[in-house]
Each structure stands twice: as C-alpha cells, then as structure tokens.
Amino acid sequence: MLGKFFSSRFQRAEKVVLYCLCTAALVVAGFPVAAGAQQAYPDIAATSLSGPGSATPLQAISVTYTIRNLGQVDAGGFNLGFYLSSDSAITTADIPIGTVSVCGLPAGAQLTVPVTLTIPSGVPMGTYYLGMAADAEGYVAESDETNNSLAGNLIQIVYNLPDLVPTAVSTTATTVYTGENISASGTVVNYGAPIPCTLHCYTDDDTGEQVCEDRVAFKTAFVLSSDNLLTGHEFAYFYRFGSIAYRGVCGLGTGQSTAVNFDATVNPYLMPGDYNVGLIVDDLQYPMVSQTDVSNDTLVGNNGNKVTVIGPDLVMVDVSGPESARIGDTINVSTTAKTLAGGAPTSDVRFCICTNPDPACTADFLSSCIRCVNRGMSLAPLETSSTVATPMTIWPQYNTLPGIYYIKAFAEIGFMHEDSWFSNEVDRSNNCMVGNQITLTAP
Fold this sequence. Notes:
By secondary structure, the protein is mainly beta. It folds into three domains: 2-157, Immunoglobulins (Immunoglobulin-like), CATH 2.60.40.10; 164-310, Immunoglobulins (Immunoglobulin-like, Sandwich), CATH 2.60.40; 314-441, Immunoglobulin-like. 4% of the residues lie in helices and 47% in strands. It has two helices and 30 strands. The protein has helices at residues 2-10, 234-240; strands at 26-27, 44-50, 54-55, 60-69, 78-85, 95-102, 110-118, 126-134, 149-157, 164-170, 175-177, 181-190, 199-203, 210-214, 218-225, 245-249, 257-265, 273-281, 298-300, 307-310, 314-320, 324-326, 330-339, 344-354, 369-379, 386-393, 403-413, 415-417, 420-422, 432-441. Strand 28 (415-417) and strand 29 (420-422) form a beta hairpin. The longest helix is centred in the N-terminal third of the chain and has 9 residues, at 2-10. It starts with a helix and ends with a strand.
C-alpha cells in the first residue's frame, strides 16, 4: 500500500492543528437517540468530509468535516486525524496531513467545522482520497468502532517543480584514515515534476567527430559530518578542501529513484573524530535545480552508526647530510619519514643547520638555526618510508662562524584557512629529529 509505505517518513512533516471544539459548535437537536441496551456507550461516526480537488506540497488547504455521536452517552475528548490515502480504506498507516483535538461530543450531537491543513513535502505526485479517522488512539470506548473513519473526495497532488529527496545513505566502513578510500551508496527520489535528461554534444578537437554525453542535471554529495544537522553548505566546504565525493545525475522522472555510488578519498585535512554519514542533493548555495522544497535535500544515514576518522601521524626516522663543508658551499640534506596513521599528502619539511643539538621541537628551535630550507613531502596512509632530499647553500652573509653544527629536520602538516593555521595531526611530538654533526670551516 502506498500510504503504508510513506506513513513513517511523513510523520515528521505532519502539521498538527490543535483546536478545542466545545458546545459553541455543536448541534444537538434533530438527531433521535436510539433506545439502547443495558449498558450504553458513545458512538462517534464520521459522516462527511470535503476539500479541494487538487493541491501542491506545502500548500494550506481548507477541509470541512462532520462528525456525530450516535450513542446514548456523551463522548469525552478525542482526536481527529486527517490523511491522504491511495484507497478508500482510511487507516493511520496512510499519509498524515493534520490532527484536530475535540474536547467532547454530547450524545446525539453533530459537529461541522472547517479546518486548515497543510500538504507535507515529499508526497508523491498522484491522486489520493482525502480521509479522516476519529479516535484512532481508542480514548473513547464506543458501541461501534467501525464507523470512525471516512473517505471524502479525491484530491490530486501536483508538482510544478521537482522535489529531490535523499532516502538512504550508508557505508560499511567503521574506521578510516585521512587520505584513505571509502565506499558509500545512497538513493535519491524525485517526488515532483520530472527532470529531463538532455545531451551535451561537441566536436572532438583531435578526431573532428561529434561526441554526445549526458548533461548533468544535478549533483549529489557524500559527506562526513561532525553532527546530524546537515545544512547543505557542507557541499561547498568539502568541495573546497578536498571533497569527500560527488556524483552527477543526468535526470530523474516523477516518482523515480536513482542509486548513487561513491568511491571516495577521505578529506586529508579532516580533523580526527567520529562522523555521521550524510547525503546532500544539489548544492544549496549554488543549486542546479529549482525545487518545490529544499528543506528535505539532506539526509544523515548509516542507521546512526558513526565513522571514526584517524588523522595523520608523521614520524621522522632519519636525517642526514655531509659531515663537513665550507661556509658558502651547497650541500645536500635528506630525511626519511613514515606515517603511523592517516596520510599526509601535503606536509612541509624544514631542513635546518643549528647550534642546538636538542632533538625536541622547543620554542628556541629556530632561533638556534643559521640556515633553513623547506621542501614538500607527500605520504599515503600507513606508508612505511618516504625520503625527500634538497640542496642547501650555507650563505656566508648570515655571519656564519666556523664550528660544529647539527642538521635538523622538522615536518609540519596542515593548511591555511581564513588566515588561521589548522593541523589534524594525531601526535606532533615526533615531528622533529636531529641528524649528524656537520663541521663548517672558513671559506
């Protein structure tokens, strides 16, 4: 049943309308109360329901209903639920569109009231029965429970624009390193107007032949989020600093779904921690598709299971250079490093010649150095060895004096963003290492 399939996902979108409808709206006369059995009960009956013939999602509609108490006893407070149903059998498993609270209904009384309800977003395009159900929770014991629900007129739900909704996203990964691959999958449904798939044709510069390809109508992004409140702006954030992954979709018809599969690389700059798996449809900052509703374009999935991201841990294992040189010479220095955890694709290694033999990266580390040069280094997750070498000229104009010095190397991982330095390294205490001594002589 269509209504049963969609009931759970529309509970969140249901607009609850609360009224306390008492004697001022009641008509008591004119409905004879039947002679009863030994024990009398109320009997709440839904007798009429009418509304518009068509509506769009998020549209407020006016509905008029009538209920009667056919029993011999006054009915206490109860709720009226309103629904969209694919058939004339109205149940609470159908798509809810609103609730009215009635504070009571005397024996023999009739209540006719107009009420404003809102069609929730994500309702598939199509024709439905407008339905109501009285006292579905069973607050009132009645002599007849079979006349509480009623199907009214047919109502057509139409869309003037598409409505893209991510309905599933998951990954089997539980722990990943920065820079490591992660696979994920998701599903996107279009509940609104169709999005056509068009071709983009061009002439190949090399062959001169015409080539036609599917044109991307909208993009989907797989992200890792530190909370479960995706705003859609994560799309731009991850794209700017190394997108987790995105996939283009050519088009999607009304009521159709498409699977999107991702084979992504975890953002190398992502801070260590636990992350939710998320799926974003279209970029909310720079959308490619105009939609009926953009509030349902994000989804946190994976059944609440988080993915633990482990950051990089770069370790210096060797630093070397010549044991002697003249001031003014150009020497070659090298270092070997490894990663104990996540990858470090853009680390910066600083080679220095210093008077201080302290292997720690103390505050006076640079102040004791007479010459430093930088060199980039790239390491994959859990890479056992990577060596980088660079030439270094010992310039005499720095008032370098002959003597014994030490070759040091210091690695730094991170990136600049909005004039601030960020580092996601697990342990920075092992980034500095002292190599061999070097004796510098006069030129």
